Backbone:
């Protein structure tokens, strides 16, 4: 299988995870101050995840477990040269599957404004669109979503 999701564990995984996030979510947006040692990445209920494709790291997400039912997806990013080729869809499908495996039934994301359409294509619904980062949700039904 060319693509799979892995929990960030090794030093190499952490390096790839930070490299993708720093470039795509900070530097490409003109932001500084990315913190590779931010404690939220190491909390027990937060799951740092890496999408591997053809053996290489190509995307990131973090799934933060809020309670037995709810998870929040954060810091979703696909490598710049690989966007709009279906990898974001694969990443989110696998994050949803991972979340189901934890027993979660509901996901939220504070979407980047220009990524709202991406989540909508994947079946997410906007709850509050009047925010800088619109709050979106998705119910996790039993079995894998076809989308
Ligand atoms: C947003 C992001 C994760 C999407 O990943 P991707 O690999 O480019 O998306 P895909 O190619 O899998 O696209 C899946 C679907 O969403 C659509 N889509 C992708 N990005 C979109 C966007 N920004 N706006 C509207 N639709 C979008 C695609 O057209 C595709 O639709 P289709 O399959 O019906 O034709 C990626 O573009 C990215 O990392 N962007 C920069 C960082 C960012 O904004 N992250 C989100 C933080 S909340």
Residues:
């Amino acid at each position: 299988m060319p693509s799979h999701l892995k929990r960030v564990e090794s030093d190499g995984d952490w390096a790839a995870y930070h490299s993708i996030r720093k470039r795509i979510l900070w530097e490409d947006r003109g932001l500084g101050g990315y913190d590779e040692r931010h404690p939220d990445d190491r909390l027990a209920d937060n799951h740092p995840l890496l999408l591997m494709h053809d053996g290489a790291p190509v995307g990131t997400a973090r799934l933060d477990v809020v309670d037995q039912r709810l998870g929040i997806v954060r810091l979703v990013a696909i490598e710049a040269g690989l966007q709009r080729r279906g990898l974001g869809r694969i990443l989110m499908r696998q994050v949803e599957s991972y979340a189901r495996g934890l027993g979660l039934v509901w996901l939220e994301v504070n979407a980047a404004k220009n990524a709202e359409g991406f989540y909508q294509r994947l079946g997410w619904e906007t709850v509050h669109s009047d925010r800088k980062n619109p709050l979106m949700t998705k119910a996790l039904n039993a079995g894998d979503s076809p989308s």
Q: What stands out?
A: The pocket of coenzyme A is lined by residues 24-25, 76-78, 83-89, 109, 111-112, 114-115, 117-118, 121 (CB under 6 Å). The longest strand covers residues 56-65.
